[in-house]
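Q: Give me the 3D complex with iron/sulfur cluster.
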Amino acid sequence: MEEIVEKNKCTGCTACMNICPKHAISMVEDEEGFKHPVIDQDKCIDCGLCKKTCPVLNTVSNKSFNKCYVAYNKDKKSTLIKASSGNIFELVAKHILNENGIVIGAAFDNDNKLKHIAIADIKDLNKLKGSKYLQSDLNNIFSYIKENINVKKILFVGVPCQVAGLKAYLKKDYDNLITIDLVCHGVPSPKLFAKYIKELEIENNAKVINYNFRDKVSGWDTYSNTITFKNKHITELHNNNKYMKLFLTDIALRESCYDCNFKTGNKYSDITLGDFWGVKKYYPDMYNKNGVSAIIINTEKGNNIFNIIKDNTIYKECKLEEIISGNPSLKISGKCPSKRNEFFKELDTCDINNLTKKYIKKRSLYKRILNKGKRIIKKIINKG
Ligand SMILES: Cc1cc2nc3c(=O)[nH]c(=O)nc-3n(C[C@H](O)[C@H](O)[C@H](O)COP(=O)(O)OP(=O)(O)OC[C@H]3O[C@@H](n4cnc5c(N)ncnc54)[C@H](O)[C@@H]3O)c2cc1C
Ligand code: SF4
Ligand code: SF4
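A: Here is the predicted complex, encoded as C-alpha coordinates.
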Protein backbone atom coordinates (compact mmCIF):
# COMPACT_ATOMS: atom_id res chain seq x y z
CA MET A 1 0.00 0.00 0.00
CA GLU A 2 1.35 3.44 -0.94
CA GLU A 3 -0.79 5.95 0.94
CA ILE A 4 -3.56 5.57 3.55
CA VAL A 5 -5.22 8.93 3.00
CA GLU A 6 -4.25 12.06 1.02
CA LYS A 7 -1.45 13.87 2.82
CA ASN A 8 -3.39 17.12 3.28
CA LYS A 9 -6.23 15.26 5.05
CA CYS A 10 -4.10 13.20 7.45
CA THR A 11 -4.24 14.53 11.03
CA GLY A 12 -1.30 12.45 12.25
CA CYS A 13 -3.51 10.69 14.79
CA THR A 14 -1.33 7.50 14.81
CA ALA A 15 -4.32 5.09 14.68
CA CYS A 16 -2.91 3.43 11.53
CA MET A 17 0.55 3.03 13.04
CA ASN A 18 -0.83 1.47 16.21
CA ILE A 19 -3.24 -0.92 14.45
CA CYS A 20 -0.74 -2.34 11.92
CA PRO A 21 -0.17 -6.03 12.83
CA LYS A 22 3.26 -6.05 11.14
CA HIS A 23 4.56 -2.78 12.66
CA ALA A 24 5.09 -1.61 9.08
CA ILE A 25 4.01 2.01 9.72
CA SER A 26 6.09 4.70 11.33
CA MET A 27 5.30 8.38 11.84
CA VAL A 28 7.88 10.54 10.09
CA GLU A 29 8.26 14.32 10.33
CA ASP A 30 7.81 16.16 7.00
CA GLU A 31 9.58 19.38 5.93
CA GLU A 32 6.88 21.47 7.70
CA GLY A 33 7.47 19.65 10.99
CA PHE A 34 4.27 17.54 11.08
CA LYS A 35 4.37 13.75 11.45
CA HIS A 36 2.81 11.54 8.74
CA PRO A 37 2.58 7.74 8.38
CA VAL A 38 5.20 6.10 6.18
CA ILE A 39 4.69 2.46 5.19
CA ASP A 40 7.62 0.05 4.96
CA GLN A 41 6.66 -1.83 1.79
CA ASP A 42 8.85 -4.82 2.73
CA LYS A 43 6.83 -5.38 5.91
CA CYS A 44 3.33 -4.45 4.56
CA ILE A 45 1.06 -7.47 3.85
CA ASP A 46 -1.71 -5.36 2.25
CA CYS A 47 -4.29 -6.35 4.89
CA GLY A 48 -5.91 -2.89 4.59
CA LEU A 49 -6.40 -2.56 8.35
CA CYS A 50 -4.90 0.95 8.34
CA LYS A 51 -7.43 2.17 5.76
CA LYS A 52 -10.30 0.46 7.59
CA THR A 53 -9.26 2.21 10.82
CA CYS A 54 -8.32 5.74 9.69
CA PRO A 55 -10.90 8.15 11.22
CA VAL A 56 -10.69 10.41 8.18
CA LEU A 57 -11.94 7.59 5.94
CA ASN A 58 -14.38 6.00 8.40
CA THR A 59 -17.03 7.56 10.60
CA VAL A 60 -16.50 7.09 14.30
CA SER A 61 -19.86 7.82 15.86
CA ASN A 62 -21.11 8.74 19.27
CA LYS A 63 -24.62 9.02 20.56
CA SER A 64 -25.05 12.75 20.98
CA PHE A 65 -26.20 13.78 24.44
CA ASN A 66 -25.63 17.53 24.22
CA LYS A 67 -26.05 19.22 27.55
CA CYS A 68 -24.09 22.44 27.86
CA TYR A 69 -22.78 24.47 30.77
CA VAL A 70 -20.97 27.68 31.51
CA ALA A 71 -18.78 26.92 34.54
CA TYR A 72 -15.56 27.38 36.49
CA ASN A 73 -13.75 25.49 39.22
CA LYS A 74 -14.61 27.05 42.60
CA ASP A 75 -11.37 25.86 44.18
CA LYS A 76 -8.68 28.35 45.23
CA LYS A 77 -7.83 31.16 42.79
CA SER A 78 -4.29 29.72 42.46
CA THR A 79 -5.47 26.49 40.78
CA LEU A 80 -7.72 28.41 38.38
CA ILE A 81 -4.84 30.65 37.39
CA LYS A 82 -2.67 27.73 36.18
CA ALA A 83 -5.41 26.44 33.84
CA SER A 84 -6.30 27.95 30.46
CA SER A 85 -10.01 28.37 30.97
CA GLY A 86 -12.18 27.50 34.00
CA ASN A 87 -9.95 24.61 35.20
CA ILE A 88 -12.55 21.91 34.62
CA PHE A 89 -9.90 19.47 33.32
CA GLU A 90 -8.26 19.42 36.78
CA LEU A 91 -11.51 18.36 38.49
CA VAL A 92 -12.03 15.41 36.13
CA ALA A 93 -8.34 14.45 36.33
CA LYS A 94 -8.35 14.50 40.16
CA HIS A 95 -11.45 12.30 40.21
CA ILE A 96 -9.73 9.69 37.98
CA LEU A 97 -6.46 9.81 39.94
CA ASN A 98 -8.36 9.42 43.24
CA GLU A 99 -9.88 6.25 41.79
CA ASN A 100 -6.35 4.95 41.21
CA GLY A 101 -6.59 5.67 37.51
CA ILE A 102 -4.30 7.15 34.86
CA VAL A 103 -4.55 10.59 33.21
CA ILE A 104 -3.11 11.16 29.74
CA GLY A 105 -2.51 14.60 28.26
CA ALA A 106 0.08 16.86 26.62
CA ALA A 107 3.23 17.89 28.51
CA PHE A 108 6.56 19.50 27.57
CA ASP A 109 9.73 17.46 28.10
CA ASN A 110 13.04 19.03 29.17
CA ASP A 111 13.78 20.05 25.57
CA ASN A 112 10.42 21.84 25.14
CA LYS A 113 9.07 19.08 22.89
CA LEU A 114 5.36 18.46 23.39
CA LYS A 115 4.31 14.84 23.95
CA HIS A 116 1.31 12.99 25.32
CA ILE A 117 2.30 11.36 28.61
CA ALA A 118 0.54 9.23 31.23
CA ILE A 119 0.50 10.22 34.88
CA ALA A 120 -0.76 8.30 37.92
CA ASP A 121 0.31 10.73 40.65
CA ILE A 122 -1.51 13.96 41.51
CA LYS A 123 1.92 15.62 41.97
CA ASP A 124 2.45 15.44 38.19
CA LEU A 125 -0.85 17.12 37.27
CA ASN A 126 0.75 20.54 36.71
CA LYS A 127 2.73 19.08 33.77
CA LEU A 128 -0.55 18.53 31.91
CA LYS A 129 -2.38 21.69 32.92
CA GLY A 130 -2.72 24.52 30.41
CA SER A 131 -3.08 24.67 26.61
CA LYS A 132 0.05 24.34 24.54
CA TYR A 133 -0.46 25.75 21.07
CA LEU A 134 1.35 23.25 18.85
CA GLN A 135 0.70 19.68 17.78
CA SER A 136 1.44 17.16 20.51
CA ASP A 137 3.29 13.93 19.65
CA LEU A 138 1.14 10.90 20.55
CA ASN A 139 3.98 8.37 20.17
CA ASN A 140 2.70 4.90 21.18
CA ILE A 141 0.17 6.18 23.70
CA PHE A 142 -2.81 4.42 22.00
CA SER A 143 -1.15 1.00 22.41
CA TYR A 144 -0.38 1.88 26.03
CA ILE A 145 -4.07 2.69 26.59
CA LYS A 146 -5.15 -0.65 25.08
CA GLU A 147 -2.71 -2.53 27.30
CA ASN A 148 -4.02 -0.89 30.49
CA ILE A 149 -7.69 -0.15 29.87
CA ASN A 150 -9.02 -3.42 31.29
CA VAL A 151 -7.30 -2.89 34.63
CA LYS A 152 -7.31 0.89 35.14
CA LYS A 153 -9.62 3.85 34.63
CA ILE A 154 -8.04 6.10 32.01
CA LEU A 155 -8.76 9.74 31.17
CA PHE A 156 -7.48 10.75 27.72
CA VAL A 157 -7.43 14.45 26.78
CA GLY A 158 -6.61 15.74 23.31
CA VAL A 159 -7.77 17.74 20.31
CA PRO A 160 -10.81 16.23 18.53
CA CYS A 161 -8.87 14.38 15.80
CA GLN A 162 -6.73 12.70 18.48
CA VAL A 163 -9.78 11.49 20.38
CA ALA A 164 -11.38 10.31 17.11
CA GLY A 165 -8.13 8.45 16.29
CA LEU A 166 -8.13 6.74 19.67
CA LYS A 167 -11.78 5.69 19.33
CA ALA A 168 -11.13 4.40 15.78
CA TYR A 169 -8.14 2.38 16.98
CA LEU A 170 -9.91 0.86 20.02
CA LYS A 171 -12.97 0.00 17.87
CA LYS A 172 -15.24 -0.37 20.92
CA ASP A 173 -16.18 1.59 23.98
CA TYR A 174 -14.65 0.70 27.34
CA ASP A 175 -16.37 1.53 30.64
CA ASN A 176 -12.94 2.43 32.03
CA LEU A 177 -12.19 5.04 29.35
CA ILE A 178 -13.19 8.69 29.70
CA THR A 179 -12.30 11.08 26.89
CA ILE A 180 -12.19 14.86 26.81
CA ASP A 181 -11.63 16.80 23.60
CA LEU A 182 -10.87 20.51 23.35
CA VAL A 183 -12.55 23.08 21.18
CA CYS A 184 -9.81 23.33 18.54
CA HIS A 185 -8.61 26.30 16.53
CA GLY A 186 -6.01 24.03 14.83
CA VAL A 187 -2.47 22.97 15.65
CA PRO A 188 0.67 24.87 14.56
CA SER A 189 3.89 23.18 13.49
CA PRO A 190 6.17 21.82 16.25
CA LYS A 191 9.10 22.79 14.00
CA LEU A 192 8.01 26.44 14.10
CA PHE A 193 7.77 26.33 17.91
CA ALA A 194 11.23 24.69 18.20
CA LYS A 195 12.70 27.40 15.96
CA TYR A 196 11.03 30.14 18.02
CA ILE A 197 12.40 28.67 21.28
CA LYS A 198 15.90 28.30 19.81
CA GLU A 199 15.98 31.94 18.69
CA LEU A 200 14.69 33.10 22.11
CA GLU A 201 17.47 31.12 23.81
CA ILE A 202 20.15 32.66 21.58
CA GLU A 203 18.74 36.17 22.03
CA ASN A 204 18.59 35.82 25.83
CA ASN A 205 21.66 33.62 26.20
CA ALA A 206 19.73 31.26 28.49
CA LYS A 207 17.68 28.06 28.28
CA VAL A 208 13.88 28.27 28.24
CA ILE A 209 12.73 26.19 31.19
CA ASN A 210 8.99 26.86 31.02
CA TYR A 211 6.53 28.25 28.49
CA ASN A 212 3.05 29.34 29.58
CA PHE A 213 0.74 30.13 26.65
CA ARG A 214 -2.13 31.23 28.87
CA ASP A 215 -0.72 33.33 31.70
CA LYS A 216 -3.56 35.19 33.41
CA VAL A 217 -1.48 38.01 35.02
CA SER A 218 -3.38 40.44 32.83
CA GLY A 219 -6.62 38.46 32.98
CA TRP A 220 -8.14 35.42 31.25
CA ASP A 221 -9.62 37.18 28.24
CA THR A 222 -6.50 39.33 27.70
CA TYR A 223 -4.10 36.48 28.39
CA SER A 224 -0.33 36.69 28.08
CA ASN A 225 2.53 34.36 27.17
CA THR A 226 5.17 33.96 29.87
CA ILE A 227 8.54 32.52 28.94
CA THR A 228 10.70 31.47 31.88
CA PHE A 229 14.48 31.31 31.48
CA LYS A 230 16.93 30.05 34.10
CA ASN A 231 17.48 33.56 35.47
CA LYS A 232 14.46 35.66 34.37
CA HIS A 233 11.09 35.63 32.68
CA ILE A 234 9.40 37.59 29.88
CA THR A 235 5.65 38.25 29.79
CA GLU A 236 3.93 39.53 26.66
CA LEU A 237 0.26 40.05 25.89
CA HIS A 238 -0.70 37.27 23.47
CA ASN A 239 -1.44 39.73 20.68
CA ASN A 240 2.09 41.18 21.00
CA ASN A 241 3.79 37.77 21.01
CA LYS A 242 5.28 36.78 17.64
CA TYR A 243 4.56 33.05 17.95
CA MET A 244 0.95 33.67 18.98
CA LYS A 245 0.48 36.11 16.10
CA LEU A 246 1.64 33.43 13.66
CA PHE A 247 -0.66 30.85 15.33
CA LEU A 248 -3.71 33.08 15.30
CA THR A 249 -3.31 34.16 11.66
CA ASP A 250 -3.55 30.41 10.79
CA ILE A 251 -0.47 30.45 8.57
CA ALA A 252 1.36 27.64 10.38
CA LEU A 253 -1.46 25.14 10.99
CA ARG A 254 -1.39 21.49 9.91
CA GLU A 255 -2.95 21.19 6.44
CA SER A 256 -5.79 18.97 7.75
CA CYS A 257 -6.90 21.81 10.04
CA TYR A 258 -8.09 23.93 7.09
CA ASP A 259 -10.77 21.39 6.26
CA CYS A 260 -11.18 19.69 9.60
CA ASN A 261 -13.21 16.50 9.49
CA PHE A 262 -13.93 16.70 13.20
CA LYS A 263 -16.09 19.80 13.42
CA THR A 264 -19.20 18.05 12.17
CA GLY A 265 -21.06 17.99 15.46
CA ASN A 266 -20.56 14.22 15.55
CA LYS A 267 -18.63 14.37 18.81
CA TYR A 268 -16.26 11.55 19.68
CA SER A 269 -15.51 12.40 23.27
CA ASP A 270 -17.51 12.17 26.48
CA ILE A 271 -16.93 15.84 27.30
CA THR A 272 -15.82 18.82 25.20
CA LEU A 273 -14.05 21.73 26.93
CA GLY A 274 -13.30 25.24 25.72
CA ASP A 275 -13.30 28.88 26.77
CA PHE A 276 -16.72 30.48 27.18
CA TRP A 277 -15.80 33.62 25.23
CA GLY A 278 -19.42 34.79 25.09
CA VAL A 279 -19.84 34.82 28.87
CA LYS A 280 -20.09 38.61 29.23
CA LYS A 281 -22.85 38.74 26.62
CA TYR A 282 -24.96 35.78 27.74
CA TYR A 283 -24.15 35.26 31.44
CA PRO A 284 -22.48 38.42 32.83
CA ASP A 285 -23.08 37.17 36.40
CA MET A 286 -20.92 34.12 35.61
CA TYR A 287 -17.92 36.19 34.47
CA ASN A 288 -14.71 35.43 36.35
CA LYS A 289 -11.53 37.30 35.41
CA ASN A 290 -9.53 34.13 36.14
CA GLY A 291 -11.30 32.02 33.53
CA VAL A 292 -14.65 30.59 32.46
CA SER A 293 -15.20 27.26 30.66
CA ALA A 294 -17.66 26.09 28.09
CA ILE A 295 -18.61 22.45 28.77
CA ILE A 296 -20.44 20.25 26.29
CA ILE A 297 -21.56 16.88 27.59
CA ASN A 298 -21.65 14.40 24.73
CA THR A 299 -22.46 11.06 26.39
CA GLU A 300 -24.17 9.51 29.40
CA LYS A 301 -20.68 8.69 30.73
CA GLY A 302 -19.71 12.36 30.42
CA ASN A 303 -22.92 13.32 32.20
CA ASN A 304 -22.10 10.99 35.12
CA ILE A 305 -18.65 12.55 35.45
CA PHE A 306 -20.10 16.07 35.39
CA ASN A 307 -22.57 15.08 38.14
CA ILE A 308 -19.62 13.93 40.27
CA ILE A 309 -17.57 17.15 39.84
CA LYS A 310 -20.28 19.78 39.54
CA ASP A 311 -20.45 20.61 43.26
CA ASN A 312 -16.84 21.80 42.97
CA THR A 313 -17.84 24.30 40.28
CA ILE A 314 -19.96 27.37 39.89
CA TYR A 315 -22.14 26.43 36.91
CA LYS A 316 -25.24 27.21 34.90
CA GLU A 317 -26.85 25.25 32.10
CA CYS A 318 -26.66 27.07 28.75
CA LYS A 319 -27.39 26.60 25.05
CA LEU A 320 -24.97 25.14 22.50
CA GLU A 321 -25.62 28.09 20.15
CA GLU A 322 -24.42 30.47 22.89
CA ILE A 323 -21.12 28.59 23.10
CA ILE A 324 -20.74 28.47 19.30
CA SER A 325 -21.45 32.17 18.84
CA GLY A 326 -18.28 33.16 20.78
CA ASN A 327 -16.36 30.12 19.58
CA PRO A 328 -16.66 29.61 15.82
CA SER A 329 -13.76 27.07 15.99
CA LEU A 330 -16.36 24.55 17.17
CA LYS A 331 -17.94 24.52 13.71
CA ILE A 332 -15.67 26.27 11.22
CA SER A 333 -12.11 25.48 10.11
CA GLY A 334 -9.50 28.21 9.81
CA LYS A 335 -9.02 29.61 6.29
CA CYS A 336 -5.75 28.66 4.61
CA PRO A 337 -3.76 31.88 3.93
CA SER A 338 -2.66 32.15 0.29
CA LYS A 339 0.99 32.52 1.36
CA ARG A 340 1.09 29.39 3.58
CA ASN A 341 3.31 27.35 1.24
CA GLU A 342 5.69 30.28 0.76
CA PHE A 343 5.85 30.68 4.55
CA PHE A 344 6.84 27.05 5.10
CA LYS A 345 9.43 27.22 2.28
CA GLU A 346 11.11 30.06 4.19
CA LEU A 347 10.86 28.43 7.62
CA ASP A 348 14.41 27.03 7.47
CA THR A 349 16.08 30.15 6.13
CA CYS A 350 14.22 33.14 7.57
CA ASP A 351 14.19 34.12 11.26
CA ILE A 352 11.00 34.56 13.29
CA ASN A 353 11.29 38.36 13.26
CA ASN A 354 11.35 38.49 9.49
CA LEU A 355 8.71 35.77 9.10
CA THR A 356 6.41 37.82 11.33
CA LYS A 357 7.11 41.02 9.40
CA LYS A 358 6.59 39.36 6.05
CA TYR A 359 3.57 37.16 6.71
CA ILE A 360 1.48 39.04 9.25
CA LYS A 361 -0.55 41.80 7.73
CA LYS A 362 -0.44 45.03 9.73
CA ARG A 363 -3.89 46.36 10.49
CA SER A 364 -4.60 49.42 8.34
CA LEU A 365 -4.24 52.88 9.93
CA TYR A 366 -8.00 53.32 9.49
CA LYS A 367 -8.78 50.14 11.45
CA ARG A 368 -6.30 51.02 14.19
CA ILE A 369 -7.88 54.49 14.65
CA LEU A 370 -11.38 52.95 14.57
CA ASN A 371 -10.50 50.39 17.25
CA LYS A 372 -8.84 53.02 19.45
CA GLY A 373 -11.98 55.16 19.13
CA LYS A 374 -14.15 52.21 20.13
CA ARG A 375 -11.97 51.55 23.20
CA ILE A 376 -12.18 55.21 24.32
CA ILE A 377 -16.00 55.28 23.90
CA LYS A 378 -16.28 52.02 25.90
CA LYS A 379 -14.20 53.53 28.74
CA ILE A 380 -16.39 56.68 28.82
CA ILE A 381 -19.60 54.56 28.89
CA ASN A 382 -18.22 52.32 31.68
CA LYS A 383 -17.23 55.39 33.77
CA GLY A 384 -20.63 56.96 33.29
C1 LIG B 1 -4.21 23.61 20.06
C2 LIG B 1 -5.40 24.07 20.88
C3 LIG B 1 -6.35 24.91 20.30
C4 LIG B 1 -7.46 25.35 21.05
N1 LIG B 1 -8.38 26.18 20.46
C5 LIG B 1 -9.43 26.63 21.18
C6 LIG B 1 -10.42 27.51 20.61
O1 LIG B 1 -10.29 27.92 19.46
N2 LIG B 1 -11.46 27.91 21.39
C7 LIG B 1 -11.62 27.46 22.69
O2 LIG B 1 -12.59 27.83 23.34
N3 LIG B 1 -10.73 26.62 23.25
C8 LIG B 1 -9.65 26.19 22.54
N4 LIG B 1 -8.75 25.33 23.12
C9 LIG B 1 -9.06 24.75 24.46
C10 LIG B 1 -8.76 25.66 25.64
O3 LIG B 1 -7.58 26.40 25.39
C11 LIG B 1 -8.56 24.84 26.94
O4 LIG B 1 -7.62 23.83 26.72
C12 LIG B 1 -9.80 24.15 27.42
O5 LIG B 1 -10.82 25.10 27.60
C13 LIG B 1 -9.56 23.40 28.73
O6 LIG B 1 -9.26 24.29 29.75
P1 LIG B 1 -9.18 23.92 31.31
O7 LIG B 1 -8.96 25.19 32.03
O8 LIG B 1 -10.36 23.10 31.72
O9 LIG B 1 -7.94 22.94 31.43
P2 LIG B 1 -6.38 23.10 31.21
O10 LIG B 1 -5.64 23.01 32.47
O11 LIG B 1 -6.09 24.26 30.35
O12 LIG B 1 -6.08 21.71 30.47
C14 LIG B 1 -5.81 21.58 29.16
C15 LIG B 1 -5.78 20.10 28.78
O13 LIG B 1 -5.47 20.11 27.40
C16 LIG B 1 -4.39 19.25 27.12
N5 LIG B 1 -3.59 19.88 26.07
C17 LIG B 1 -2.87 21.01 26.16
N6 LIG B 1 -2.27 21.28 25.01
C18 LIG B 1 -2.60 20.30 24.15
C19 LIG B 1 -2.27 20.02 22.80
N7 LIG B 1 -1.49 20.82 22.07
N8 LIG B 1 -2.79 18.91 22.23
C20 LIG B 1 -3.59 18.09 22.92
N9 LIG B 1 -3.94 18.30 24.23
C21 LIG B 1 -3.45 19.40 24.82
C22 LIG B 1 -3.62 19.15 28.43
O14 LIG B 1 -2.98 17.92 28.51
C23 LIG B 1 -4.74 19.25 29.46
O15 LIG B 1 -5.25 17.97 29.67
C24 LIG B 1 -7.61 24.90 22.40
C25 LIG B 1 -6.64 24.06 22.98
C26 LIG B 1 -5.54 23.66 22.24
C27 LIG B 1 -4.52 22.76 22.89
S1 SF4 C 1 -5.09 6.92 10.76
FE1 SF4 C 1 -4.51 9.01 11.42
S2 SF4 C 1 -2.28 9.12 11.01
FE2 SF4 C 1 -3.06 7.35 9.87
S3 SF4 C 1 -3.54 8.18 7.83
FE3 SF4 C 1 -5.44 8.29 8.99
S4 SF4 C 1 -5.40 10.38 9.87
FE4 SF4 C 1 -3.30 9.92 9.19
S1 SF4 D 1 -8.51 21.61 13.64
FE1 SF4 D 1 -9.24 19.49 13.34
S2 SF4 D 1 -7.57 18.43 12.27
FE2 SF4 D 1 -6.69 20.30 13.15
S3 SF4 D 1 -5.89 19.63 15.14
FE3 SF4 D 1 -7.95 20.44 15.49
S4 SF4 D 1 -9.26 18.63 15.40
FE4 SF4 D 1 -7.29 18.06 14.46
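A quick observation: The longest strand covers residues 208-215.
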